[in-house]
Amino acid sequence: MTQRFCGTCTACCKTHPVKEIRKAPNQWCRHCAKGRGCRIYDTRPSGCREFQCQWLKSGWAPDERPDKTRIVVDCVEYPGVGQVVLVFELIRGDLQGSFARIVRDRALSRGMSLMTIPVTPKFPATLYTHVRLPSDSNFALDDGREIKVVYLG
Predict the structure, then answer these.
(1) Which residues in 41-73 are b (16+ Cβ under 10 Å) and which e?
(2) What angle do CA 56, 61, 67 make, to 5 degrees?
(3) Distance of alpha carbon 143 from its chain centroid, rounded?
């Protein structure tokens, strides 16, 4: 597979926090030229440099790039749960979009855990998992939001 580059996609410039520049999640980065790219791409912080969404890492189609689907997808190892597919919403309502449903259905049908993360901080994230977690498990995002757990059996 050919190496991919962000190009004009700036979706994670909104969805992801960047500690080095005190950028909060779900807010546009001050260095982002929306729809054009990062103004400091060559000297961007390590938090930006090290992040690669699933579109960059996989063989997904060009029209499945985050700026086109309006969701950013990542896979991480989550303590006590294992591999989790993270789906970050770019604009409110995008978690109900067709591509978000495809990602969700694909992950869950393969027995993977999936977490949906709404753009609006007043709404909790939701972890869908087949893993039985201890009843006293408390999960929270870095921004302090609760993570609601839905056990899928």
Answers:
(1) eeebeeebeeeebbbbeeebeeebbbbebbbbb
(2) 65
(3) 14
- DSSP conformation class of 140: B
CA–centroid distance for 103 within its chain: 12
Tell me phi and psi for residue 97, to 5 degrees.
-70, 165
DSSP 91-109: STTGGGSHHHHHHHHHHHH
Q: What are phi and psi of 127, to 5 degrees?
A: -105, 115
Q: What one-character DSSP code corresponds to residue 119?
A: S
| Residue 1 confidence (pLDDT) above 70 | no
Question: CB–CB of 1/60 below 8 Å?
Answer: no
CA dist., res. 46 & res. 31, Å (int) = 14
Mean pLDDT score of the chain: 90
Find the range with the poorest average confidence among 22-26, 61-65, 123-127, 136-140: 136-140
Residue 135 falls in which region: left (phi positive, over 0), alpha (psi -120 to 50) or beta: alpha
Please give the pLDDT value at position 65. 94
Task: Give per-residue pLDDT as tens, 47-77.
Answer: 999 999 999 998 788 899 999 999 999 998 8
